[in-house]
Amino acid sequence: VVTSFDLVTLDVAAPDAAAEFWKAVLGLVESEREDGDRWIVLSDADGIRRIGLQRGTPRPGGVHLDLACSPDRFDAECRRIIELGAEMIGDPRHEPYGSIVNLRDPEGYVFDLCAYV
User: Fold this and answer.
1) Taking Cα atoms as reference points, which of 49, 45, 21 lies closest to residue 33?
2) How far apart are CA 57 and CA 54, in angstroms?
3) What is this structure's pTM?
4) How crowded is residue 26: how many other Cβ atoms within 10 Å of its Cβ?
5) CA dihedral 23, 15, 8, 43 (to 10 degrees)
6) Largest CB tally within 10 Å, which of 4, 39, 69, 91?
7) Is 87 helix (H, G, I), strand (E, B) or coil?
8) Per-residue pLDDT tens over the stretch 47-72
9) Rounded distance, CA 23 to CA 20, Å?
């Protein structure tokens, strides 16, 4: 298997405030930030990514998995996961940090496949 678990992402209305809360609760540090406060990643002291905070609509179940693969495997992994029963939600995006596609598993849970550069 070439796809791995990356981190848990929380959909929140106020990523900056959520980041301050989780940093204080878990002793994490901010390791990534994109588009102001649209996307913030908190890591532990060893630099391991633990929580992603994404500006969105908070709701029960507003948590999704981020899976990661290498950039050269992104297209093949996307196809493989779809062949296993996932549904693509929108087109893949290519951002400064890498590529991302939003997917839904057969039970309806949303998750992302990311290929960081």
Assistant:
1) 49
2) 9
3) 0.67
4) 12
5) -40
6) 69
7) strand
8) 999 999 999 887 767 778 888 999 99
9) 5
